[in-house]
Amino acid sequence: MDISIVVPLLNEEESLPELHDWIAKVMQSNDFSYELLFVDDGSQDNSWQVIRSLSEKNPNVRGLRFLNNFGKSQALNAAFKEARGKVVITMDADLQDNPEEIPALYNLIVDEDFDLISGWKKKRYDSKIRKNLPSKLFNAAARRTSGLQLHDFNCGLKAYKNEVVKNVDVYGEMHRYIPVLAKNAGFHKIGEKVVLHQARKYGSTKFGMDRFINGFLDLITINFLSRFGKNPMHLFGLLGTFVFFIGLLASLTIGISKLIKLYNHEPTILVTDNPWFYIALTCMILGSQLFLSGFLGELILRSKRDQERYKISEKINFPSKN
User: Fold this and answer.
1) Fewest C-beta atoms under 10 Å: which of 67, 117, 119, 148?
2) In this predicted model, what pLDDT tens digit does every residue of 302-315 receive, in sequence order?
3) Angle in degrees, CA 250, 254, 259, rounded to 5
4) pTM summary value
């Protein structure tokens, strides 16, 4: 199979038939073998009924349905496990991504051997204050911390080699950072392509200030994980040892100073009356806690296990497992 097209969605019943027809037209005109995998992330409208209807007309349509809204990252993670195409294309369901871009993205992966191509919506039709400005700030921070010179990390239109999606674990709200996750997994030929952006035709945007804030928090998380995720002791152990050593050195200084004054019969105060004693004690306690945090992190890494993060209630066009 040439292409798996993954479309996560939430309450997009109006746009799905038009999106399906548009994708099918592009696939047929380019003679691609394909599957169109819709992931219903707990929609409260008739999106799942629309997907079911589309699957009855088109055997290339497959569907996954979540019991509740678990988020775009979980939807992509579930779809990536099921994708069978040589090239995997992700796009949003709101018709703001143009299916006409798919052949060019496919060719960049197949002909030029890119591991991942990220779309760049150079000209946008979103509100400049609500979405454009936050996106620019977010992308600038992501470029600075990740080292990847991409202009639009959060663009939903991306293309991947199949082995890339099989080797990245997308969780939380990390869908924004799939290029970074791919880089950390060992895939380094990552590029971008300018793609068309279209104004939303149906429904309303899911973007809010909470997602903007969460995006920066996730950026801090992934930056930490990329540096110390495999060896947390390298950070917490080193920092804990340093802070503990400062506290120990301060304690020794206080104790030796006290002994010298007693030996020379000079007036002195109780050690517990010295404010530096409590600063030193705090440093030693914090240092011990940091060291233990790194140690526990190492233990968790060595005993990590798979955890079920979402529950799929229904599937369409998936073979049953005995």
Assistant:
1) 67
2) 665 444 456 677 78
3) 145
4) 0.73
- Can you list the alpha helix ranges (DSSP code H) found in 147-274? 162-165, 178-184, 209-228, 233-263
Any idea which fold 3-228 has?
Spore Coat Polysaccharide Biosynthesis Protein SpsA; Chain A (3.90.550)
For residue 212, is pLDDT > 70?
no
The letter for the amino acid at 186 is G
What CA–CA distance (Å, rounded) separates 189 from 199? 31
- Return the pLDDT at 197: 82
Q: Report how far residue 186's alpha carbon sits from residue 169's, in angstroms, rounded to the nearest whole number.
A: 13
Give the count of beta carbons closer than 10 Å to the beta carbon of residue 207.
15
- Token code pair at residue 30: 């380019």
Instruction: Evaluate whether 23 touches 48 at the Cβ level (below 8 Å).
Output: no
- Neighbour tally for 285: CB within 10 Å: 13
| Contacts (Cβ under 8 Å, ≥6 apart) of 101 | 119, 157, 193, 195, 196
In the DSSP assignment, the letter for residue 267 is -
Longest dimension (CA), the chain: 98
Q: Could you state, in order of their start, the residue ranges of all structural domains in the chain?
A: 3-228, 233-302
Residue found under tokens 């050593």 = 245
Nearest to 162 by CA among 87, 52, 78, 103: 87
Residues whose CB falls within 8 Å of the CB of residue 274, separated by 6 or more in sequence, listed in order: 254
Compute the distance between CA of residue 139 and CA of residue 152 in angstroms, rounded to an integer.
Answer: 6
Spatial CA neighbour of 153 closest among 219, 231, 202: 219
Instruction: Determine the straight-line distance between the first and last CA of the chain, rounded to whole angstroms.
Output: 24
Is the pLDDT at 21 greater than 80? The verdict is: yes
Give, for 301, the enclosing helix (H) or strand (E): helix 275-302
- Position 306 scores a pLDDT of 47
